[in-house]
Write a structure and sequence with these properties.
The complex is a heterodimer. Helices cover 22% and strands 33% of the residues of chain A. By secondary structure, chain A is α+β, with helices and mostly antiparallel strands. In chain A, a hairpin with a 2-residue loop joins strand 10 and strand 11 (170-176). In chain A, 44% of the residues are buried. By secondary structure, chain B is α+β, with helices and mostly antiparallel strands. In chain B, a hairpin with a 6-residue loop joins strand 23 (385-391) and strand 24. The radius of gyration of chain B is 38 Å and the shape is elongated. Classes of the chains: A alpha+beta, B alpha+beta. At the A-B interface, strand 7 and helix 4 of A face strand 9, helix 21 and helix 22 of B.
Chain lengths: 195, 1002
């Protein structure tokens, strides 16, 4: 084996690294949650050992259809489809979670898939954040319809996105890495008239 | 256009006017400067300035003026502004006046053919409906020439040719109750719903809510003057948090499940210089409503008589609108011709505004109250009288009246010998009212004819939909308001209003056309398309009897107004001629859009770079920095080539190709689809979806797989790595990622639910940096020290887990070039870091970044196929000379297997993948060019699928599918280019370079 270049420190880059995502206007604010891990959890909730193990591993109750749950430490478990969930957790905890989950579910038909590179999480808020999103979102995102704890796997215009309602003031968007630039430009164009 | 003797005047004041008497607005029409008032429409401002003629008619070039009050206008079409702000065929009645507005008449006889059209008057009798169809059929080759001339003569607005300088967007709206129409009924419905706590969206096409309350302001609601009631209702609605009001917003289409589209004119009313560049000109609202109340009102219709198209002949509602809404008295000597009570309102309006008014009413009598009102206003009344013809050259100067006999059964006729002329400058006509049933019909409902109110009524057959106001025949403000309340309770109770027992509130006497004397044949039914009474008669004589056929024969109801004023007349005349009841004739089909919608609004924000998503890899910014030229592959922006200096594509690709084969190249392969496959049946699943066997692939190894469709034809390919016995990662083609994922899920969920397998798309998670070339091992050894990269320890088609520059990675030793190659897969967030450092560390090996074009050359030199380029859905693995990958002995079948033994799939002479060398060794064959046996023959043998210049071989190479090609090695055939050039080629193996595969180990 040859000597490697050991002087370099890995550089972690968001798909929006080339853009100043720090937008803070009364009408439209964006906050990018960096260094998050995203792990896909597949399995049958009717399978009690699986459900018990996931509850324990993720630290939160299992979400109902189109809902997500929070663990005490802020980790989230998001319903994606009847047998698919997305566990969102700090990036540094991701590898340990995958290791623990893989071991715990060794004999159970399930899948644990690291998809941490696939998403960027943006929280949008401000007086007109619903108006901006409604230009490209098909669901009714008003707070009384899109209630806290709800999740929509949907599209923003022509790109897939997962929308989460964590509080009444903002909506979180999980945007795929490769579509992040498109969605950023789409939302920025929609916000222009309000800022 | 012609400004004739100005008999119009601006009124000094008006309690109902929406214009601001203190603010004047400058504008130009046909290059001439005018002044109007703030709040004017272009039509009202021009009429106040004495402009009567707005253009010439479509077919006959007859002068035409304003006919109606709003969206139903057939005549007064305008080219508004120019260049990047041009709006073609806007209606003068709908254009809100703004400072420095510039308008032209597109129908004013522009160009040579437009100018000669009026001169053809003597020949117009030879131009009946169907003239063009019959005359210009032959020779067919000349149609394009005819079309140019006829198009020039028609004289509608030119199409915009400049880039639109304004922007548009879409907005999704959600509400409990959508109310369409902001007249009294709509306002009341919105109020009622809002007070019940519903989330209400109210849309109205006009800039000011109230519907026709301004026109008929003497009406009352709850004993209040209607305008007072309207203003209070608006204040009330605006104060409610659960109500959204969109003015200048036309609901133009109604789709199933209460999905509607409405276009909001956000800035069309503002001077060009005052428009905000940060917001849109128009916005398309996509509305999803739980319930819908249609309160779209009704449109007045004319009565047909000879010369009823003369400027100065208007609908009575248009005259009322001019007087009451815009404070413009359009003439001094005004005749009202009516068959219903609405005409009386207009006569009173005009008289109170100071005009000399004569009311011509076909009916026998008025009520005592009406008689008194008319007498008080000094209106001369002529009952049982009709206008038989209008006179004037450029505009109306007089009319001929004739007494009528109306019989008890409703039929009527003119009394002979009673005709006399009457001087007038405006003729206001009211032939009854037609409810705006359009939206209700968009979802398939057919309107029905009511003999009670002489109008087509909405069927209201769909659930979660109700209606109110004039749309359901409730014409008075009082009754409209009541119907607004009822509409909400009907929604709540899932009931509908009783439309079969309506009063004839306006006391309409059904007459549609006035009989003519000899030579009086210009009874216009559809003013925009110059469709006359005679045209409809001709259509029926020629056996076009169905109203849809009458429409298409005559053009009745075509154009930008879609026959809003003329369609009912056309149907009535069709009924009269054939002796049919109106209910049997029916209407033509109402389709979206209710009024024209700009293409810009339909496109919204989805234009230019937002037209389609551009997907970027993690290394995209580095590629830009390295000067990459990009090509779009399945939405991904992939580096095409990396030119240095002034290099063109071919020079760059030649350099890149040689560098890869001689030292090391680097390529971004992140775009390949990646599917994580987990579960105890993962191997079995792979066995079923791929042609080859996956039973024995050990962890740490990779295998190439070929996927077939049900017909046994190649649909995708890629390399799959075995992570462990229950875990694999499949790669797909870049463009096929989504469809392959869906294909696999389809089989898994519908046909093989017994298989315990989970699929997860991980395309975005991984970035892939491919190091390719003889020096790639040296380079990766500089990047990773926890993996043994020797050929023995890390053989071809193996993968290893390691740490590359501090980042956990899966490294695959696979190759799409035939060279030694390592693909470094890391989490996407580290992709750029790995790429940039590989570029830096690779400098000592003269590393070369390369793009898709070089990748294509390298793979073609090795004869590797690209699915979708060398295959087209009709190529089996056997056709592709890839029988080696078909494992027929697998215990369970694989997708497409059965089709491989079908007679057509196994027959002799199928097109097979081969290589081609041009015999001159210099000509690069065009991809797609056809192959024949010999010059002069026409039977096609196949076509060229891939063709490149191979720098390493110093000559062009090509891949092609040729009938029976695998048995014709060494034979000469001919390639035919589109330009007709014949190029001799030799059939050869499709593996051009390193046929023994000796280079893959470096």
């Amino acid at each position: 084996m040859a000597n490697t270049n050991s002087n370099t420190t890995p550089v972690y880059e968001s798909p929006l690294a080339h853009i100043d995502t720090n937008v803070s206007h009364a009408a439209w604010k964006v906050h990018e949650a960096k260094d998050m891990g995203y792990v896909v959890v597949r399995g049958n909730l009717d399978n009690a050992p699986f459900a018990t193990a996931i509850h324990k591993l993720c630290g939160s109750g299992l979400p109902e259809r189109m809902q997500f749950t929070h663990a005490d430490d802020g980790r989230m478990l998001v319903w994606v489809s009847p047998d698919e969930f997305l566990h969102i957790l700090p990036l540094e905890k991701k590898d340990q979670f995958i290791k623990d989950a893989t071991e715990a579910l060794d004999d159970i038909f399930s899948a644990i898939v690291d998809n941490s590179g696939a998403y960027v999480k943006l929280a949008v808020s401000g007086k007109h954040h619903i108006d901006v999103l409604h230009k490209s979102a098909y669901y009714n995102l008003k707070a009384d319809k899109f209630k806290i704890g709800s999740v929509y796997s949907t599209h923003l215009a022509k790109a897939p996105a997962i929308l989460l309602r964590e509080d009444e003031q903002s909506i979180s968007l999980l945007v795929r890495f490769s579509f992040a630039d498109y969605i950023w430009r789409l939302l920025s164009a929609g916000a222009k008239e309000y800022i | 256009m012609a400004t004739l003797k100005n008999t119009a005047r601006r009124l000094n004041s008006s309690s109902s006017a929406v214009v601001n008497f203190n603010t004047s607005v400058d504008f130009t029409f046909e290059g001439k400067r005018y002044q109007g008032l703030e709040g004017d429409s272009l039509a009202s401002a021009l009429i106040a300035n004495g402009v009567k003629v707005f253009g010439n008619s479509y077919k006959y070039g007859r002068p035409r003026g304003v006919t109606s009050s709003y969206a139903e206008e057939p005549n007064a079409l305008i080219s508004l502004e120019s260049g990047g702000h041009l709006t073609p065929n806007a209606k003068a009645t709908q254009i809100e006046l703004y400072d420095n507005l510039k308008a032209k008449s597109p129908t004013a006889g522009k160009g040579f053919f437009g100018r000669i059209k009026p001169l053809m008057k003597p020949f117009q009798r030879f131009l009946p409906a169907g003239f063009y169809y019959k005359t210009f059929m032959y020779p067919a080759s000349l149609w394009m020439t005819y079309e140019k001339i006829l198009r020039g003569m028609a004289g509608i607005s030119e199409s915009p040719t400049h880039k639109d300088l304004e922007s548009y967007d879409h907005m999704h709206q959600h509400c409990d109750i959508l109310v369409v129409g902001g007249g009294v009924a709509g306002l009341q419905a919105a109020l009622t719903a809002a007070e019940q706590g519903k989330e209400v969206l109210l849309v109205d096409e006009r800039p000011i809510l109230g519907g026709l309350a301004y026109e008929y302001h003497n009406d009352t609601v709850e004993t209040k003057p209607v305008l007072e009631w309207v203003k209070a209702a608006i204040r009330n609605l605006e104060a409610k948090d659960n109500v959204t009001i969109l003015k200048r917003t036309t609901a133009f289409s109604f789709h199933d499940n209460n999905n509607l589209q409405a276009v909001e004119l956000c800035q069309d009313h503002l001077p060009l210089k005052k428009r905000n560049q940060n917001t849109v000109r128009q916005r398309l609202h996509k509305i999803k409503a739980t319930d819908v109340v249609l309160a779209t009102g009704a449109i007045e219709r004319p009565i047909a008589f000879h010369n009823n198209d003369l400027p100065g002949v208007m609908l009575a509602s248009a005259v009322s609108s001019l007087i009451n809404r815009f404070a413009v008295l359009p003439g001094q000597k005004l005749t009202v011709f009516t068959n219903n009570d609405a005409g009386i309102c207009t006569a009173l309006d005009a008289a109170h505004a100071g005009a000399s008014v004569i009311l011509v009413d076909v009916r026998k009598q008025h009520t005592d109250e009406q008689r008194q009102q008319l007498a008080d206003a000094e209106v001369t009344v002529m009952l049982s009288t009709a206008v038989r013809t209008a006179h004037g050259k450029k505009s109306l100067t007089s009319v001929t009246l004739q007494n009528v006999n109306v019989l008890n059964d409703g039929s009527w006729k003119l009394k002979e010998g009673t005709d006399r002329d009457l001087s007038c400058d405006i003729l206001a006509v009211s032939g009854g009212w037609s409810p705006v049933v359009h939206l209700d019909c968009h979802t398939g409902s057919k309107p029905f004819w009511s003999d009670d109110i002489h109008a087509f009524m909405p069927a209201l057959q769909k659930s979660h939909r109700s209606a109110a106001g004039a749309l359901i025949g409730e014409y008075s403000a009082e009754r409209a308001a009541i119907s607004g309340v009822q509409a909400i309770s009907h929604l709540k109770n899932a009931t509908q209003p009783d439309l079969l027992s309506l009063d004839n509130m306006l006391n309409t006497q059904a007459i549609y056309r006035v009989p003519t004397e000899e030579g009086e044949n210009k009874l216009f039914i559809d003013l925009q398309n110059d469709v006359t009474n005679a045209d409809i008669e001709l259509a029926i004589r020629e056996n076009y009897r169905n109203i849809e056929h009458v429409k298409r024969y005559t053009a009745l109801g075509f154009g930008t107004d879609q026959g809003k004023t003329g369609n009912v007349l056309g149907a009535a005349i069709t009924a009269e001629i054939q002796g049919l009841p109106m209910s049997q004739v029916g209407t033509t089909t109402f389709r979206p859009a209710y009024t024209p919608v700009a293409f810009g609004a339909l496109a919204g924000q989805h234009v230019f770079s937002l037209f389609d998503p551009e997907r970027y890899t993690p290394m995209h910014q580095s590629h830009i920095k390295n000067g990459a030229k990009f090509e779009e592959v399945g939405q991904w922006m992939r580096p095409w080539y990396f030119p240095r200096g002034t290099e063109d594509l071919h020079t760059a690709v030649n350099r890149e190709s040689l560098d890869v084969r001689k030292t090391v190249g680097i390529m971004d392969a992140s775009t390949l689809g990646k599917i994580d496959i987990q579960g105890p049946d993962a191997r079995e699943f792979l066995n079923r979806v791929y042609t080859n066997s996956w039973t024995k692939l050990a962890p740490g190894n990779c295998r190439y797989g070929l996927m077939l469709d049900e017909n046994g034809m190649i649909s995708d390919d890629g390399v799959t790595a075995c992570i462990n016995d229950n875990h694999f990662v499949m790669t797909t083609t870049t463009g096929g990622a989504a469809s392959v994922y869906q294909w696999l899920e389809l089989w898994l969920q519908t046909e093989w639910p017994e298989l315990k397998v989970y699929l997860t798309s991980v395309t975005d998670h991984w970035s892939t940096t491919a190091l390719v070339g003889p020096d790639s091992r040296k380079l990766i050894e500089k990047m990773c020290d926890d993996v043994d990269f020797s050929a023995d320890a890390f053989p071809f088609m193996a993968w290893r887990e390691g740490t590359v520059l501090g980042v956990p990675a899966r490294i695959m030793r696979i190759s799409f070039s035939g060279e030694l190659a390592f693909e470094i897969n890391v989490q996407a967030n580290y992709g750029r870091y790995i790429w940039d450092n590989a570029m830096s560390l690779g400098k000592e090996f003269d590393i070369t970044p390369y793009g898709t074009e070089t990748m294509h050359v390298l793979r073609a030199e090795k004869g590797y196929i690209i699915v979708g380029q060398d295959t087209d859905g009709s190529v089996s693995p056997i056709d592709a000379n890839m029988s080696w990958i078909v494992a027929n002995k697998k215990p369970f079948s694989f997708l497409g297997k059965r089709s491989l033994s079908r007679s057509d799939t196994t027959k002799e002479g199928r097109k097979q993948l081969v290589g081609l060398f041009t015999q001159d060794a210099t000509t690069i064959l065009p991809e797609g060019c056809q192959l024949i046996n010999a010059e002069g023959e026409t039977a096609m043998l196949g076509h060229v699928t891939s063709s490149y210049y191979s720098p390493i071989m110093g000559r062009p190479i090509a891949m092609a599918v040729v009938k029976g090609g695998l048995n014709r090695m060494g034979e000469s055939i001919v390639a035919c280019t589109r330009e007709g050039k014949n190029i001799p080629v030799e059939i050869t193996s499709s593996v051009f370079y390193d046929p023994k595969g000796e280079r893959k180990d470096g």
